[in-house]
Amino acid sequence: MTARTFTHPSVLAGITAGASWADAEMDPTRIDWTARRAAAAIPFPLVDGRPVNPYAPTGIRYGRNELGHWGEALAADAIVTAADIGGQRWLLLIERGDGHGWAVPGGHVDPGENPTHAAFRELAEETGLVADPTDPWVKTLPARYVPDPRASDEAWMVTVPVRIDLGHGWDALPEVTGRDDARQAAWLPARSYQHLIEHLRHYHDGDVFPAHRDLLAAVLDH
Known about the structure:
single chain, alpha+beta, Nucleoside Triphosphate Pyrophosphohydrolase, 8-stranded mixed sheet, two-stranded parallel ribbon, 5 helices, 22% helix, 28% strand, elongated, NUDIX_hydrolase-like_dom_sf
């Protein structure tokens, strides 16, 4: 079986345009991996000077698929919940603008940025909700690999999830609106992960972003 090589045209366009999310280097063997591997949230190997996804195979052995960053790209995600006066738990999600479904607000951690602060920044940018990172109910969880459908064996995503519980007894949940690269933002009922996906499919004809399915199932059901 021939190893598949693929890099999406959007990545090549991003490189040409000088996008910050895309490595300009086309050949990963010319990258100095010492610093990147030292800073990685999840260790990964090199084979012949090329980064290898620690959770490979993805189906694409060489190239970046839809991700612009060679090797690990670090993200932070805000998992925001609140409960109304009836005790119903609600989860804040956004509909992604790229058509990959509904996801928790989040995005890339900027160089030198604290992942917890990045999660709160992305939350405000994508939903308009400004929360307090010093709140005692905020909990930053360990970094975890996410099975992003845009990944390859040479470019993948790792996220730092940040749990933000806004508490109970809400008469009206905080107003949110889709911003930046989010088509919309909405509070969705989430007694369990199954309850969430049933609501999404029935009322929004949508589904959870594949990279966040295991993460949300772990949070909502445990």
